[in-house]
Design goal:
The complex is a heterotetramer, with two copies of chain A (259 residues) and two copies of chain B (284 residues).
Chain A: H1 6-16, E1 23-26, H2 30-40, E2 47-50, E3 54-55, H3 69-73, E4 77-78, H4 81-90, E5 96-99, E6 103-104, E7 110-111, E8 114-116, E9 121-124, H5 131-137, E10 140-144, H6 170-173, E11 181-185, E12 189-193, E13 200-205, H7 211-216, E14 223-230, H8 236-254
Parallel strand pairs in A: 1-2, 1-5, 5-10, 10-11, 13-14
Antiparallel strand pairs in A: 2-3, 3-4, 6-7, 8-9, 11-12, 12-13
Chain B: E1 3-4, H1 7-14, E2 20-23, H2 32-40, E3 46-49, H3 54-62, E4 66-71, E5 75-76, E6 80-81, H4 83-91, E7 98-101, H5 104-115, E8 120-123, H6 131-134, E9 138-142, E10 149-154, E11 160-169, E12 174-176, H7 183-189, E13 192-201, E14 211-213, E15 220-223, H8 241-251, H9 254-266, H10 272-276
Parallel strand pairs in B: 1-15, 2-3, 2-11, 3-4, 4-7, 11-13, 13-15
Antiparallel strand pairs in B: 5-6, 8-10, 9-10, 11-12, 12-14
The chains are: A alpha/beta (259), B alpha/beta (284).
């Protein structure tokens, strides 16, 4: 199966990292696709939670926003947003939170706030939304993001959410008891933090990806695991289910909902 | 006690220049018709509070209504950035805008504290994040039992909160159903509340624990069918996702934006909303 | 993930001697059948947490299950005092009992904090009251924005919470409806939760914002119709007000109490509850 | 109309103090009867809230407990108990809270916790329930209570809830911004706090009640207003509506609800 895009493999690889017992705090975009792909393939009982308050949702098409009607219609229950953040996220009930970034550093620290100075930004990005507390309160964090030197930077301009700080025991030192970023899945590779330094280390390259290609897309000196694997390509079923999901979604978003 | 009145009169009576106002609705039930009315009436120097500024505040900011914004996620959900908000923050067009930025958890807690009559909320948050360095409304409190350092945020207590809801009964009791966001908290935190509804009915006909705002907690109720467009009203019409995509194009250009706002807001009335959702109504 | 099991097995597996346990239900849906099962199994040295100890804890205390009680109103609602609780506090019969006393607001906030994963809650309360002098779980915090002194209470985080609810579906999702009290908070604050339900159904068939506990937040579900008697289950059967009046007489005397408990609890099984509510079922 | 009991007049006098615009936090017993009598007579739109979470309730019979099904069935909405105390009581939305007492002093301070020492009580009473925060957060407090020297004492054994402390500006001094007890209605008289000292002062005696009778039922030296009025006796309508309510209630509580 070679007829797939890098983003498709990124999504599929992320879905494989999820299990039936997970309770996921889902963001829009690749995480939403990955979580629903997992639900539609190997993890039918996975619990998906969107920050709009929808718990145990099973959308037939991917939502455009975090609060599409589809999410509420198919949820076990829908709670107010303050409750979502207090009882469900802060309450420590989420096993995996997904985050993405405009800028990411080697320790999984994330910026989605500004490029440049905060008070005179070059680019004003959307900001943190749920991310600062997702990063702190979920059992662990998976990051999905396409590699580019603009995004994978030596130093981020703003700490929107904390990953492993300067590495090592930085999380424990500021009182965080959760694991933080444990997995980084990109369009080119799979990365995991080094057990001691917490620096993201490449553990698997997607089929056909070279170390030269990697170096050109990352703004720091990449560390590789001793034994770098090759990411298994998508299976026919994974790809078919993902593409069906995207096709249904595209159709739904192009026309008025009631038409 | 809720007064039933036209939207135009409600905005004229309850929303004043310089007010702190929350137009709430978390992706669902966003009170667009009320925002358009505020734009038409030329409100200025508002402090706009909202978790997700979204298209509604992109329009108000672009039209010069706001001098300050309190928010936690300034994007066009699932589409991209908010061009008018960016233009205000990056280029002071049409006027400079002060920002007070939070996370969702912080701002949701701040509304909850406002509804609870407190001046602050505490929660576990912002650990290792930079926002506390740039927002003086974020402080810390030490838990007297565990010794843990918790984030403390200033409560949100708007002059006015404005929401859209499905129904009101003739006593002014309001039903909000589906994704209820922070609307109840926004209304209870505010001095006044203006509510647009899809319809006024004899009986709300709901189960005992539905999200209801009793009539005596609301200042004004305005029947404006379709008032959430391009957002949606659970049980009435779906989200106009294609308009959210289209807004990216309209809002990217100052002139295109200005022309669109003239044609679709300044020269219109609340009555137009019902036609905007006609094609979005489904069998549900 | 919720396991469906007999009540006897659920209490045996999840409630242990020495546990801190909350049997919750604010006048409505009080889990009497589960308490009777705990009494039959001879639990000892429990810390019993509950806003209103009510008949349910009067029985457990009188039968010697508890060494400590955390509460905010120790009365037989609308009837009078709780004789067994009084006998324990005033005369150490059948054993001495330590008390940790709060107001309703404080204890409700303490559950809410427990459900929120915090170690404390803050609120405006206890001003001028004497309880802070006798309860070390009440402290103060200064609001960093207003300078106001607020009460701070230690969160309630029980080992086990036990509630009664109307229904569960086959995935273990639980519906609580009507006067919902602090049951959701009690379940979410606890390490384990045992839920008795009136019935298990294919589909809960409820509106989107009903009070639902997802199956993965519950340890065990036990189908025990009538399990709230003499309390009630909205939509199933009414409150046995005459029994509340009668309890005043039964509980006033140690021997009468002991005999009643033998006949009606020790020598019975959870199956008896369905017959106790037969006459209380109405058309609703 | 002379054929009424002192407690009936107490209840009726309390009901007269309520208006259509009031939002009342209702306790069980005389307050519940008074509030519902007001609703069934001169204040049909009064809002009644019970601490069980029932808002805008209109019971046909008086509840035995604070959370009878009747309250929920007839309410505009029913909210969780934490929300009741946070958004509705602490949020400052209640105009009038009703309290009663086992012991009451001349400044409206209340004890319902213990008689004797807290840690070795002579009588262990029910405790405060909602009272400590009702006393602080309601706009004003009405107290209903039958007079007796056991209840109307020089010094209460425990401050369950704070009235006017030692009088004067005691409330302001501890940071309370609400009015506290503004009305005390008993089976014999109506009392109001002196504007300066805050000591409860008799402003009206019920028909036929003498000052000698008053002195025997109160454990402190009673102050009287300069111009003590006589409480108007119950009207025929007030008494008929109250007795109907009690008759319906008695019937409902004596038999199983579903029978």
């Amino acid at each position: 199966m070679s007829n797939y895009t890098p983003v498709e493999l990124m999504t599929i690889a992320a879905s494989r990292a999820l299990s039936n017992d997970d309770v996921c705090f889902v963001g829009i975009g690749a995480p939403s696709a990955a979580c629903n792909l997992a639900r539609l393939t190997h993890a039918p009982d996975i619990t998906l939670i969107y920050e709009s308050g929808t718990i145990g949702t099973k959308p037939d098409v991917l939502p455009l926003s975090i609060g599409d009607g589809e999410l509420c219609d198919t949820a076990v229950t829908t709670v107010p947003v303050p409750e979502m953040f207090r009882y469900w996220l802060q309450g420590g009930r989420i096993t995996i939170g997904f985050l993405s970034a405009a800028q990411l550093d080697r320790f999984g620290n994330i910026n989605t706030t500004v490029i440049g100075d905060y008070f005179a930004p070059k680019v004003r990005l959307p900001g943190g939304g749920g991310a600062p507390e997702i990063a702190g309160s979920c059992g662990e964090i998976y990051i999905t993001m396409q590699q580019s030197t603009r995004g994978f930077v030596e130093k981020i301009d703003f700490f929107t959410s904390f990953g492993h700080g300067t590495g090592g025991t930085a999380r424990e030192e500021i009182g965080l008891t959760t694991k933080g970023p444990t997995l980084l899945i990109t369009d080119l590779a799979i990365w995991k933090p080094d057990p001691a330094t917490r620096e993201f280390t490449v553990v698997s390259l997607h089929p056909g990806v070279t170390r030269e290609q990697m170096a050109k897309s990352v703004g720091w000196e990449i560390r590789y695991a001793d034994d770098v694997e090759t990411t298994p390509p998508p299976t026919e079923q994974e790809l078919a289910v993902l593409r069906d999901l995207h096709a249904r979604t595209k159709l739904a978003h192009q026309q008025p909902a009631g038409a | 006690m809720a007064k039933f009145m036209p939207l135009r009169d409600a905005i004229a009576e309850f929303l004043h220049d310089g007010d702190e106002v929350a137009f709430e609705g978390f992706t669902h039930l966003i009170p667009h018709a009320a925002a358009h009315e505020a734009i038409r009436q030329g409100r200025r120097n508002l402090t706009l509070v909202r978790l997700t500024p979204d298209i509604i505040y992109d329009q108000m900011i672009g039209m010069g209504c706001a001098s300050r914004i309190v928010f936690s996620y300034a994007g066009n959900p699932g589409v991209g950035l908010l061009h008018r908000l960016r233009d205000a923050v990056e280029n002071a067009w049409p006027n400079p805008i002060e920002i007070c930025e939070h996370s969702h958890a912080a701002l949701a807690n701040a509304y909850e504290a406002g509804a609870s009559g407190l001046h602050c909320a505490i929660f576990r948050g912002y650990k290792g994040a930079d926002l506390p360095k740039v927002n003086k409304d974020i402080k810390t409190v030490i838990c007297p039992f565990s010794g843990e350092e918790l984030a403390a945020v200033r409560a949100v207590r708007p002059d006015v909160s404005i929401i859209h809801a499905q129904k009101a009964d003739r006593d002014g009791n309001v039903l909000v159903e589906g994704i209820v966001g922070v609307q109840k908290e926004a209304v209870l935190a505010a001095k006044h509340a203006v509510v647009t509804v899809e319809e006024v009915v004899d009986d709300l006909d709901v189960h005992p624990n539905a999200c209801i705002l009793p009539g005596w907690t609301v200042s004004a109720i305005c029947e404006v069918p379709g008032a959430a467009h391009p957002s949606y009203a659970h049980g009435y019409y779906g989200r106009d996702n294609s308009f959210y995509l289209e807004w990216d194009r309209i809002s990217a250009d100052r002139e295109l934006f200005t022309a669109w706002m003239k044609d679709n807001v300044l020269d219109e009335t609340p009555k137009v909303f019902v036609s905007r959702v006609a094609a979005l109504r489904s069998g549900t």
